[in-house]
Design a protein that fits this description.
With 364 residues, the protein is an alpha+beta fold. 24% of the residues lie in helices and 24% in strands. Strands 7, 8, 9, 10, 11, 12 and 13 form a 7-stranded mixed β-sheet that branches. The chain has a 4-stranded mixed β-sheet with strand order 2-1-4-3.
């Protein structure tokens, strides 16, 4: 059956709703399901690495490759948009007539014991070929009630949703729209919630050449340990604007004072949809450029970055072409930088296809 319901409008009216009579359920924290080890493996998030550890010397020794071959850039973007053919395995997650996410049918089975929080009305209003969609119990009518109830379920699921950060992300149908509740960051992909973040290219111009400051992530990070990253990047948590988040992350990740970071310029977005097992990662990244003063040396404040290096932009492009050293979504943001600063030109074959692929996800 077709998966085209993912391209439908996210605004629909509920025509049918099954009746529900609350039964005095056990407390959320006592509800357990007989999870099998295979389910645990499928749910477990993965710590991504470059395959083998590498040093800055390895990074700087990457050989040059043909400048007119854009296919390696496209390959890296595809790594952030895996398994699109499996979108039909997910059902809509609906709050107040709005599709706010997507839940894998297997993960939905794990939520069904929590019947005082999650319910599954039987209808095809939202195009799900499972004949139902996921929503929250009508007794959970306020954002605060929803946030607490869903948090208890996530806590009850325990290690099945690893990497809990105690960091809440707002859940809305689109950016800037009313917030229905807040959700633990690590759980967002399991509910297909659209997540927003900021990535900043910190660059320097000297001797008629442009350089990018790169960070190498701490080996202790649970995700992408030891891999290359932007000078500054981070998720967009509840209650802070993109611009203020850039300033906050600049201070925490690179020791950049507000006197410099407030000059960061918003330059657009990239987006992607990545599916792995029960997880659908729908990310929108707001991109910023900051021209860093010559002589400024970044230093990490929060322990998440091992070290920084200043690398010529042409070499950064080459690293993307030839290696898997970068954290996956950094490839999109840097490729966007290469377009905007003239390093990728219309004369190169595949120019438009590559440009369009930078926004393969929902930009809303």
């Amino acid at each position: 059956m077709s998966c085209n319901y993912f391209n439908r409008s996210v605004s629909h009216s509920i025509r049918h709703f099954i009746s529900y009579t609350p039964v005095a359920p056990p407390t959320i924290l006592s509800l357990r399901s007989p999870f099998r080890p295979s389910l645990h493996r499928k749910l477990r998030s993965f710590a991504v690495s470059a395959g083998n550890s590498f040093t800055w010397d390895d990074v700087l020794r990457v050989p040059q490759s043909p400048q007119n071959d854009l296919s390696p850039f496209l390959d890296k973007i595809k790594l952030c948009n895996r398994n699109s053919e499996k979108q039909c395995e997910f059902m809509p997650f609906v709050i107040e007539d709005q599709i706010i996410g997507y839940v894998h049918h297997g993960f939905a089975d794990l939520l069904k014991p929590f019947y005082n929080v999650f319910i599954f009305p039987q209808d095809n209003t939202y195009g799900s070929h499972f004949g139902c969609h996921c929503t929250l119990h009508p007794n959970l009518s306020t954002p605060n009630d929803r946030t607490k109830a869903v948090a208890n379920v996530i806590k009850s699921l325990g290690k099945l949703i690893p990497g809990i950060r105690n960091e809440l992300y707002p859940v809305a149908s689109a950016f800037g729209e009313p917030i229905f509740f807040s959700l633990e960051r690590a759980a967002a992909p399991y509910f297909g919630i659209k997540v927003y973040g900021i990535h900043m290219n910190g660059y320097l111009e000297k001797d008629d050449q442009k350089f990018l400051w790169l960070g190498k992530r701490s080996e202790q990070k649970s995700t992408y340990p030891g891999m290359l990253d932007h000078l500054v990047a981070g998720g967009l948590p509840h209650g802070i604007s993109c611009g203020e988040n850039v300033i906050k992350e600049c201070e925490e990740e690179a020791g950049i004072p507000r006197s410099i970071s407030h000059k960061a310029t918003p330059v657009g977005v990239v987006s992607y949809i990545d599916i792995e097992g029960y997880r659908m990662k729908r990310d929108v990244l707001f991109c910023y450029d900051l021209k860093v003063p010559d002589g400024f040396i970044p230093h990490n404040e929060d322990g998440e970055v091992e070290s920084f290096r200043l690398v010529p932009v042409t070499q950064v492009a080459n690293i993307i072409r030839k290696t898997s050293y970068f954290k996956a979504n950094c490839n999109l943001v840097i490729t966007d930088f290469l377009f905007r600063h003239g390093y990728i030109r219309p004369e190169e074959f595949g120019y438009l296809r590559l440009l369009q692929s930078l926004r393969s996800g929902y930009c809303s």
